[in-house]
Known about the structure:
The complex is a heterotrimer of chains A (285), B (124) and C (220).
Chain A: E1 3-14, E2 17-27, E3 31-35, H1 42-49, E4 59-62, E5 65-66, H2 71-76, E6 78-81, H3 93-103, H4 109-118, H5 132-144, E7 150-154, H6 162-175, E8 182-187, H7 191-196, E9 199-204, E10 207-213, H8 214-220, E11 222-226, H9 228-232, E12 241-244, E13 249-253, H10 256-263, E14 267-269, H11 273-282
Parallel strand pairs in A: 3-8, 3-9, 6-7, 7-8
Antiparallel strand pairs in A: 1-2, 1-4, 4-5, 9-10, 11-13, 11-14, 12-13
Helix pairs in contact in A: 4-5
Chain B: H1 13-26, H2 39-46, H3 50-62, E1 66-69, E2 73-76, H4 81-105, H5 110-123
Antiparallel strand pairs in B: 1-2
Helix pairs in contact in B: 1-3, 2-3
Chain C: H1 2-14, H2 19-36, H3 39-56, H4 58-65, H5 67-71, H6 78-112, H7 118-176, H8 181-217
Helix pairs in contact in C: 1-6, 2-3, 3-6, 3-7, 6-7, 6-8, 7-8
Amino acid sequence: MKNAIEVRKLCKNYKGFQLKDVDIILPKGMIMGFIGENGAGKTTTIKAMLNIIHTDGGEVKIFGMNVKENEKKIKEDIGVVLDDSFLSEYFNVIDVNQFMKHMYNNWDEELYFKYVDRFQLDKKKKVKEYSSGMKMKLKIAVALSHHPKLLILDEPTSGLDPVARNEILDIFQDFIQDEEHSIFVSSHITSDLEHIADYITFINDGKIVFTETRDKLLETYGIVKCSEEDFKKIDKKDFIKYKKNRYEYEILIDNKVEFQKKYHVEIIDKPTIENIMLIYIKGEK
Amino acid sequence: MDIIISNSSNTPIYEQIKEQIKNKIISNELKTGELLPSIRTLARDLRISVITTKNAYEELEREGYVETIPAKGTYVSNKNIELIREEQLQKVEHLIDTAVSVAKISNISKQEIQDMVDIIYGED
Amino acid sequence: MKTVVGLMVKDFLNIKSYRTTLMFLLILYAITSFANDNIATFIPICVPLIFGMLGISSFSYDSIAKADKYVLTLPITKKDMVRAKYLYVFILTVLGTIVGIVLSIFLQIVKTGGLTNIESIIGASIGALLGMMVLQIFEIPVMYIFGAEKGRIIQMAAIVLLMFIISGISILVMKVFQISLEQFLDILIHYGIAIITAMVALFYIISYKISLNVFIKKEV
């Protein structure tokens, strides 16, 4: 088994929205950041991957096995965090343990309470009394406490302050120390993924725009800033998209070294994932 | 071992790591046979992606500075001290070549350059 | 089976915080029935009723936490979930019936010093249990079809409709067989319990199958 996740030609039709031919490959031992606007199809993709919703085509394999045929077996080894959904608003951490030990064969009570202590989760409070950061940490503690091999997380950092987000990134990198472990994490806060994700997959309007390694994306992509006059000299096939701003043109390119050799432009900015995403979404070709 | 990474630098992160480890090997701060941190530990400690550290180690291995023993780890190579010296020598030669070319254009004498080398080298 | 038990544990843990309210209600019922001298009928009917309603409320608890979506990420099937829900509601209603019987017997003994009407207590209890189950046969699929929010309103309409249907069938039976209300009730009391129990059990299973079908097709 080489890949933790293999999604091929996944389709899902809703009224007014569709996932179209979504392909995702997450090699084992890696972290993949799944980025896109709200409503681009991130949550739908995750739900389809986990066989929570019906699909209209395509195939999902996790650990090399078809998800529909081996659902229970696969889910034993996955830890999932969903943005807006959990067990009960009325549970405290002890109730959660009571429930979870019936759910997973590998549920590790000791490990769970270790995480509870590490995250300083109040044992007496109910989930509904937790802050959103606490809630998220509880969900992550649960997702980690049955020794999963794969984490699938939907927006685990949304609504958290920078300190809590940082802590969560630490947890991810601790988890990935075992090279059998992999993480698939969606976020619209791209800066979180900018450093630690090995791969970035970008979804827009239900379609995958690209999957690139983080290094390729941030080291070879560039954003050229130039005047209209200069822009007109550039061959259309040498850039991905451009965005006309009030005083300048922003041009997204995917090979800054070759581009520079050809055009000798003055400014090529190092991109952030957010820049890239923005020009893809708002830009024109 | 210090490795300092700049996210705003134009030098790719893997290259920053590679260069810094290389310098430490050349300066003998990292000694032959010494075990380097694993790819995953280094990635965690530097807060960067695994692929980035992997790239850095692979390049170091390709250039002969380190070698990876499967399931054990990555060690500072012992075979290629000569090679490293050779490579460094080539680098120095290349730089002197550039210096001499510039000197010739500007009518700077051989003696003047030698004096310069004496002063600069002596300071070190 | 372990996961089905787990899912029921979840529902029981959910109503844990309702304990005090429940105790309070039981004491209140005990006092009123004690004062009104209707221990043998009031308690055996009301207690299973609250327990049954509490069972159905688990749909609301789940809906508030959007629990279905999360639970489906665990190593369980939709079948486990529906099965656990039916079992939970049923067990809770039976539990309510037992509590009702015990409480009314206790109150009766305290009040009169003896136990003369155990038959009517048991009768009322079984009647209440079957009644609650008939209700649940409709309630649970309604919850699965419409969700807990809309389900609650529709459930009310369903109860009214159900009463019309039952009285309609009864009137029809009386008309067809040319029997009076007294005779009809008499037949029911003598032979009805067995028939009704069998019917309720059958429809409970049919209701489960419908709910399962609905839930499997449903997008959470």
